[in-house]
Design brief:
Layout: H1 6-16, H2 18-21, H3 26-32, E1 37-43, E2 46-53, E3 57-63, H4 71-77, E4 82-86, H5 92-96, E5 100-109, E6 123-127, H6 134-141, H7 145-153, E7 162-167, E8 172-182, E9 187-195, H8 204-216, E10 222-228, H9 237-243, E11 247-256
Parallel strand pairs: 3-4, 9-10
Antiparallel strand pairs: 1-2, 2-3, 4-11, 5-10, 5-11, 6-7, 7-8, 8-9
Helix pairs in contact: 6-7
């Protein structure tokens, strides 16, 4: 594909199979590409490989065919400190060379069947006032305020996709959910769904997800979600999102070397 930039090629391949190509939403990768050397290859069938790396990290690695890394890539993996690899492309021998290994699931909702949201009686949705309630949202989620501020400052911020669930009896928030929206490529992504422990198992979390999907279904082609396989607060976080209509079997591994 002479003349095409890596960004253009990556976007095209990503949109064909988002969860297999990248471990996070496309815009997050595009934001960081300037820090990496990039290359892609093609044959008669089209693009067949994508790579982005520097001396410290392997940032993007995708193969249309031939799942195992090439000899050249194996040598690179012997020197980098961090590598993000899809399960299908991960050579077990390569993984042994790293000290740490952390897994993530990656799922997609195609918006073809969005369940209507209906909170239990006595609860309502309220939009988060990110100008006045950012500290409150940070305290609720356990995040540093500057992390939430970064989300607000990003071009994919959509104010109507930051939601509280309010207990009408106490007028206090008992749930929080947010999503980001990339209108350039038609991707939405769930970033945070949280419900206070005493209000869990009441359908609040599911309705947060369904309400966010309802709000993005006509503004994006699909929604993705990424989650930690070792997150101890949820027995099986991937199963929760599948119950909300997400699908896929893609697993990613963050490999680290001390």
């Amino acid at each position: 594909m002479p003349g095409d930039s890596f960004r253009d090629v990556l976007a095209k391949i990503y949109l064909e199979n988002p969860c297999k190509v990248l471990s996070n939403p496309l815009w997050k990768t595009l934001d960081k590409l300037d820090d990496f050397q990039t290359t892609f290859g093609s044959d008669a069938k089209g693009v067949n490989r994508l790579e982005a790396s520097n001396l410290e990290s392997l940032f993007v690695f995708w193969r249309r065919e031939g799942r195992q890394p090439s000899l050249l890539m194996r040598r690179k993996l012997e020197t980098v400190r961090i590598a993000m690899m899809h399960q299908d492309f991960l050579d077990p021998d390569v993984a042994v060379g790293f000290d740490t290994r952390r897994g993530y699931f990656r799922l997609l909702h195609d918006h073809k069947n969005v369940h209507p949201s209906q909170l239990p009686s006595g609860f309502r949705f309220a939009q988060v006032d990110t100008g006045l309630e950012l500290l409150r949202a940070a305290a609720f989620t356990g995040q540093e305020p500057h992390i939430l501020q970064n989300w607000v400052n990003h071009p994919v911020f959509a104010p109507d996709l930051w939601l509280w669930v309010i207990d009408e009896k106490s007028s206090q928030p008992v749930g929080f959910g947010m999503a980001e929206l990339d209108t350039t490529y038609g991707e939405a992504a769930l970033e945070w769904i949280q419900v206070l422990p005493t209000y869990q198992d009441a359908g609040i979390a599911e309705n947060l997800v369904w309400e966010l999907l309802r709000r993005v279904k006509d503004r994006a082609a699909f929604t993705t979600v990424t989650g930690d396989l070792d997150y101890k607060a949820i027995d099986n976080p991937g199963a929760f999102y599948r119950e909300c209509g997400f699908s896929g079997q893609d697993l990613w591994w963050l490999l680290g070397r001390n």
